[in-house]
Amino acid sequence: MKIGIPKEIKEAERRVGATPAGVKAFIDHGHQVFVERGAGIGSGFKDEEYIKAGANILDRPEDVWAEADMVMKVKEPIGPEFDRMKPGQILFTYLHLAADKELTEKLLERKIVGVAYETVQLDDGSLPLLSPMSEVAGRLSVQMGAYSLEAKNGGMGILLSGVSGVRPARITIIGGGVAGFSAAMVAVGIGARVSILDKNPLRLRYLEDITDSRLVTIMSNPANIEEECINSHLVIGSVLIPGARAPKLISRDLVRRMMPGSAIVDISIDQGGCCETSHPTT
User: Fold this and answer.
1) Count of domains in the chain?
2) Do 139 and 241 share a structural domain?
3) Which residues contact 132 (CB under 8 A, 6 or more apart)?
4) Active site (catalytic) residues
5) Are 45 and 16 in contact (CB under 8 A)?
6) In angstroms, how far is the first alpha carbon of the chain from the final one?
7) What pTM was computed for the model?
8) What CATH number corresponds to the domain at position 172?
9) Rg (the chain; Cα; Å)
10) Cα separation, 92 vs 134, whole angstroms
11) How far apart are CA 27 and CA 29, in angstroms?
12) Could you tell me the pLDDT band of residue 99, with boundaries at 50, 70 and 90?
């Protein structure tokens, strides 16, 4: 198979669809790999490393798409990439189609075989290709929440950890999956007062055990979500229904009733977001 790895063109996206080690694995299995020049620079991989692994370096993205039977990317195709697709081509990337009707229609129109990383499941229901990114997003969500709560950024000016004589911030995490758990571990480590909501009592019991009861676990329902959001300085949405649009659990009215200067970080935004007022910012 001919595999193409174009450079990502979405704003601020610096990742690449395959590392030189991944390319070598393809080559060792008899495939041909075409990499756009400079595709790996943002991730710290030089063209020479791809060449050493056996890849062909092409100057233009159009040539990568034209050569490839399968295109491997990180983010969904945008803008000029639609015209580079060819019927029957396999597109292997994060797609999040549940929240993007236009992209879905474009893929159908171009007769693309789309394989979304976030929908690949093992027999136990786990998501091996989504989990690593969920872990990153969960940990980063606390960092971004802290940034948003700084007074200079329009926040209420509260420190998540608190200081001697001052209470730490209250953080509510909706969803106890990989992203929610990762966010909770960072938040608990900082010293914040953390509540995590989930529909699965077994998952909540696990989260309580693994954190030595340093967080509060709460069954997820509308009443509990409302109470926790109203009393929290930072709310992190990490709800996931594989392959489906995220449910709207935080209404516009509830956002209005939250503390002035509080913050919401909606990790679920790739699937449409779990807050009615959420929109992508990157």
Assistant:
1) 2
2) yes
3) none
4) 96, 270
5) yes
6) 33
7) 0.90
8) 3.40.50.720
9) 21
10) 18
11) 5
12) confident
Q: Is residue 276 part of a domain?
A: no
Kind of pairing between the strands at 234-237 and 216-219 = unpaired
Q: Do 87 and 176 have their domain in common?
A: no
> For the residues of 136-202, what is the DSSP string, one character each?
HHHHHHHHHHHHHHSGGGTS----TT-BTTBPPPEEEEE--SHHHHHHHHHHHHHT-EEEEEES-HH
Q: Which domain holds residue 210?
A: 132-271
Q: Give the span between the Cα atoms of 2 and 72, in whole angstroms.
A: 11
254 vs 132: CA distance, rounded Å: 31
pLDDT at 90: 98
Write out pLDDT tens, residues 50-77.
999 999 999 999 999 999 999 999 999 9
Is residue 34 within 8 A of residue 62, CB to CB? The reply is no
pLDDT for position 281: 82
What H or E segment, with its residue span, contains residue 93?
strand 90-93
Q: Is residue 21 pLDDT above 90, yes or no?
A: yes
Q: Could you tell me the two tokens for 118? A: 């976030």
Facing residues of 57 across strands? 35
User: What is the rounded distance in angstroms from the CA atom of residue 13 to the CA atom of residue 81?
Assistant: 15
Question: Quick one: pLDDT band at residue 128, thresholds 50, 70, 90?
Answer: very high
Whether 55 and 80 have beta carbons less than 8 Å apart is answered as no
Q: What is the DSSP letter of 83?
A: H
Statement: residue 282 has pLDDT above 80: no
Provide φ and ψ at 206, rounded to 5°.
Answer: -60, -45
| Separation CA 182–CA 66 (nearest Å) | 40
Residue with tokens 């490839």: 68
Give me 186's structure tokens.
Answer: 């960072």
Task: Give dist(CA 272, CA 100) in Å, integer.
Answer: 8
Backbone angles phi, psi at 83, to 5 degrees: -75, -15
CA distance 30 to 28: 5
Same domain, 112 and 165: no
